[in-house]
Amino acid sequence: MPVQTLIPLLIATPGALFLGLSLVWLLGGAVTERAMAWITRMAYSLLVLLAFIIGWRMSAQGFHPVRVLLGDWFTVGHYGYPLSLLVDGLSLPLVGLTVVLVSIVAYFSVRYLHRDPGFLRFFLLLHLFTFGALLVFTADSLDLLIVGWETIAITSVLLVGFFQYRPEPVRNALWVFASYRVADLFMLLAIFLAHHWFGTTSWKGLLGAEGAPGIHGAVVAVLLVIAAAGKSSQGPFWGWLPRAMEGPTPSSAVFYGAISIHTGAYLLLRIEPLIRHSWIATGLIIITGLATAFLGTLVHRTCADAKTSLAYAAQTQIGLIFVEIGLGWSTFALIHLVSHAMLRTLQFLRTPSMLRDYHRVHAAAGGRFSPTGSHYESLLPQSVQVWLYRLALGRGFYDAVVERWIVAPVQAVAHWLALFEPKASAKKSSDH
Amino acid sequence: MPYLSLPYLTVALALLLGGVLASWKASHPRRVAAVAAALAFIAFLAAACESRAAGQGSLYDPWLPFFQADGLNAVPMAFYAALTLAVMVLAPRRDAAGQAPAGMLLISLSVQTAYAAASWVPMVAGWWLSCLPFALGMFGSQRETRLTIGIRLASCIALTAAVLLLSASSTTGFAKYGTLWSLFFIIAVVCRKGLFPLHAGVVHAFEHGPLLPKALLFNGHLGVVLVARAQLASPPETAHHAFEFLSMAAVATVGIASLRAFAESKPRRLLAFLCISQASFMLAGITSTNIEGVTGALTHWLLVAAASTGLICIVRALEVRVSSTEDPLMHLGLAAKAPRLATFFLICGLALVGLPGTLGYCAEELIFHGMLQSHLSAGIVLLVATVFNAINLLRLYNTLFLGVLPKHVINIPDALPRERWPLTACILFLVLGGLMPRVVIGWRSDAANSIEKALSAAGGSGHH
Description:
The complex is a heterodimer.
Chain A: H1 3-26, H2 33-60, E1 66-76, E2 79-87, H3 91-112, H4 119-138, H5 142-160, H6 167-198, H7 203-207, H8 214-231, H9 240-243, H10 249-258, H11 263-270, H12 272-276, H13 279-300, H14 306-326, H15 330-364, H16 382-393, H17 398-416
Helix pairs in contact in A: 1-2, 1-4, 2-3, 3-4, 3-10, 3-15, 4-5, 5-6, 6-8, 8-11, 8-13, 10-14, 10-15, 13-14, 13-16, 14-15
Chain B: H1 8-24, H2 29-54, E1 59-60, E2 68-69, H3 74-90, H4 100-116, H5 120-129, H6 132-135, H7 146-172, H8 174-193, H9 199-207, H10 211-218, H11 222-232, H12 237-260, H13 267-286, H14 291-321, H15 339-352, H16 359-374, H17 376-401, H18 417-435, H19 437-457
Antiparallel strand pairs in B: 1-2
């Protein structure tokens, strides 16, 4: 089978699994835990095999980019939505990484979520996520990328609220969703403006030799940088990642340790030629990355629970990846990205049992473990140490700032708009 | 004059009327009404298929030639008949007792009459007829507020006045009455669609009284039908000012309703703001006067009808199961007991707010593109509003389905088979329509091309 056939098959398999199994369940059918585990194992084994074959064939051909044209999704007037996939030296490692890490997490989750009431829901969302992630990494245009981008977002939100009978995950899922949507707004704007100004959103059209330089190109680049920052929990969007830790550990591993959190960095690597044309976009990436890395590492040290601590650590590393991309060290950034994803997945999956092991060893040692850290901090003056500690403990006062300066004004305007409605609207309905 | 091969429209409308009369006093009114709705659906579907096969142009009914099937109305008629059938099947037992099924069929009859109208008179008749079931109290003790009744009557009176002026202008020339006609036309559309600042009327209608008949009435989208028909009639320059005003009013409504919803926690009110905001997209698109915007609006029409009917039916299904859903003080956690209803709700909602992979995404994409072409700032307002709407949708979902299950909810049934099948059909349309949008867009392309041509001929296209 040629690579042009294998690539759509690779992407469509998890999507078809999600659709088929969801439909069976919605119509009243029962998918048992055993059946779901078997289907998942078979499907992900197939995906790994397909990814391996694609990689092997591409390496035999010297890693030339492979484009798969699937025709138009729809066309109206002068506005077309072509479906085209691209696998090249940048997307291939991430496709491979996705299928391998999701497979590991899926195998792990079969046991981890055994007899959990949300077992079926988790695997359905995992299949949907895999579809979204593969689509992001193989999309040949911004139009198609956002389909995967938002699919990842919604699965992420639903998994944050996985333990839906507790109020905290529900609240945090809403926060995560709001952050995603606000960030996605910038991507949507970039897409529509790209259509408006350049008549295309394909990578070839935007980044090619006759690409999109000038002020319009810079605007699109800046908008995409902000969207990428939202997805990777950087800059002004850095508050959602720790909140997203409410989901089950396997989903945290695959979303916030491995794949989802790195899609922002992938987007930046993909649009690098566009960024290079704009010093504002380049500067924005570096400043955002540095600021997030600094705050992340600071807060990471004061976190009381392991998963949140890992979340801030991940945020720090992605901040550094952003800086590397901003400085033009693309290959280094890609290697950093892949290795970080693998390491962090391992850490997330190991955390629950590691804590248990630690407590056991700690008890066996008679509670004589000495604390670590506090090396660099001691170099700073006492007053600065205290100030930094307060900043870190308050997590940069991010939540307070957002609540006071964004949420509260929006709600105030919403209440004020009731002015246009008669008072009777407040009357409680008693007739149904 | 080309005719349909059989009098499908007359038969379908007669079936609806027969259904109204037969189910009025029937011992099993739902059964009788559902059979009538199903048969009417088949007749409308046949008319739609014939109209599609005939391509552009109108096919008149051979028995009643003041009814027609064309690119604009053929698919929505079949679609609306399917919605009527779905609501009839889905309706909880207490909402499908007494004269309520007859009332719902009467709403369907009125909307279909307005859709099928080949001239202004049957359209006006359809508008007036839609007020009848509520005036006759066919939905039991559930009463509407005076505000809702007043706004609906105002729209009917304004449309009647506009049509009278139009017929007078045919003898004296449009210029004489043009401004007055525009004024009545705008009032009719603003009142019917619930555009800002009259959106409170729709919110009232959703909050008080029967919800399922309101879903049918709301999803008739007669305001959009009126605008589309007016555009198809190659309107003079005065009418373009009316369209421009309506476009701006629609964009304002999209933004204001999406923002206003942040101050709401009652499910019915929150749902009302969500539906108003998303439904106003189509008016914004249809008045964008370019092919992308118009096609997007006509596609969005089907999407909003399917998705919002699904949402409303689920909310009603929950209301009859758990009384606290009317005004919840905290999260209700109903997903633990009704996971399928939760899933249906989420998919319908996400499609409504334009999740990629659903029909909502394609329809909104076209509307955004059309609006950005004609009014850049208005397009940006629409984009921001979708963000707010999506957050509001998740708030509503969280309130109803997530959180701790209240202690008094010991056991409630999940989606019953009669709920499950219509809702599955609804989400299949939304998802498959999103995966293969060319099919659905193809249903609407004839009408969109006709509208765009009519506007170009009148010098309206590209005048921004």
